[in-house]
Amino acid sequence: MQEWRVKRPCEERKALTMKRAFIFLAVLCLSSFAIDAEDGEKSGLAMNYYKDSCPQAEDIIREQVQLLYKRHKNTAFSWLRNIFHDCAVESCDASLLLDSTRRVLSEKETDRSFGMRNFRYIETIKEALERECPGVVSCADVLVLSARDGIVSVGGPYIPLKTGRRDGRKSRANVLEQYLPDHNESMSVVLERFANIGIDTSGVVALLGAHSVGRTHCVKLVHRLYPAVDPALNPDHVDHMLYKCPDPIPDPKAVQYVRNDRGTPMKLDNNYYRNILDNKGLLIVDHQLATDGRTKPFVKKMAKNQNYFFKEFARAITILSENNPLTGNKGEIRKQCNLANKLH
Questions:
Q1: Residue 85 catalytic?
Q2: Euclidean distance between CA atoms 156 and 151, whole angstroms
């Protein structure tokens, strides 16, 4: 009997301690769930957002991107440029795609958007979606997912991206230059603009790796060739640039371009970084990326390691794609991507 009396208080204390620990863990789990749910509500985006409302949506976009790429190889470069030009300007809301009206200029027609094209193929994708699920999938999501699948088409990584964006109703042409850095901006300005949307230095270096594909119009290059050649350019590369851009004042409508990467012009890879370290970057921003003390270490690392480039590129694209989206009851689902819906 004496032994039982000694053990009982210990057992009760042990049971009480375990009960308290269980309650603490339960509260912690519920708190964590609540925080996750709150974060999800804040962004309004989700993986496979259309799984119930339009289960085939992402497959349709992927199929259309692949089909269009087979017919027109340069569409993939357009998809990639679209996500940068749209999502970096205040919101990822497909404002880029809106046509000009009598009162408002389209973002597509600004100087920063020089050379952008293939917008009509976004409409091709949208039309395919409308046949399957009318009024369900936003143009903003078409823009983002076409970029994701376009990246794969040119050999880049597959990047899982959330959906659920809605479309804006207004052009942001009047503020575009406050958000999009120009190719002649200082590296400080470039880094600051991207930092404002949460992309750090390694992410900026990775995003500019998109210059691995496509081409640059001579309009953007001639200031490095005329009246005197920029001494920072690799002499072995200058002859090719002069051959492709023979006029000091090129016609903006002429087909006068230089491939961004002569070695693998149709492939997204880390050859871009080797080129700019060898002073073969076409744009001032390319040259600065390889020489600025803040960015050069990342350039060298990406030049040596393509997996690292792809990892940072995917991370930066994800952040860009989630920049201040319109969700819930904000915005609309456009019937045509180049026109805001008529309000009745």
A1: yes
A2: 5
